[in-house]
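Now read the record:
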Amino acid sequence: MLMAVDIGNTNIIIGLLEGERIVGSYRITTKAAHTSDEYGLMLTQFLALSHYAIDDVDDVIVCSVVPKVMHSFRASIIKFLGLEPMVVGPGVKTGINVRIDDPKTLGSDCLADCAGAYHTYGGPVLVADFGTATTFNYVDGAGTIRSGYITTGIRTGAEALWGQTAQLPEVEIVKPDSILATNTRTAMQAGLYYTFLGGLERSIRQFREEIDEPFQVIATGGLGRIFADDTDEIDIYDPDLIFKGMAAIYARNTR
């Protein structure tokens, strides 16, 4: 079994894979203050919940955009699982070429997402990841990342809204029943939802205008589910895209 770990700014997501089949998925809050022992305890508990033992884990692959967490988490894998994890980054074969001004600036999570989309659905493809930040990356038919953009994630924008205004409450990010809100909470939910939905639809249409070939749009990330069923601009919502990407990358670097 392969353990795939995505260390993001908001959450650490752990996937357990047998071949291409995801047999378990767990999520914890990203906190730099956790020790390697705390992370290790969580890993062993997640394995037990999926009815696995430590010895069932053959290898571990990690992609991380939070360097200050990486040291403790890597140490937990070595200490509790007895394995040196493969880390997505320089020197690791991905099957994806990167043709942007500075390839080193592309986040390893975006790279894994693109690998998952291209190897699962083919290209060309526009990969949209709705996380702490919202990212779009375009992969052409030859498996080359050509362009992309980064903008505020909806939750990040929402936190700025209620964090910077004294009388606005924290609200759940959901699609409201109507845009015709009659109270502060639903007014905020409608404003957040439809502003973000309109922005992502306009962004995808702009990609279509400037790219001279048809492409699929693959969405992922926890908040992508909110919008995927409410727009024709998204072709597929795949919550496990990053795990599929890490599995594909691991297969190219099997040790």
Summary: The mean pLDDT is 93. The first helix runs from residue 36 to 49. The helical segments are 36-49, 67-81, 108-121, 154-163, 184-210, 224-228, 241-252. The chain is about 40% helix and 25% strand.
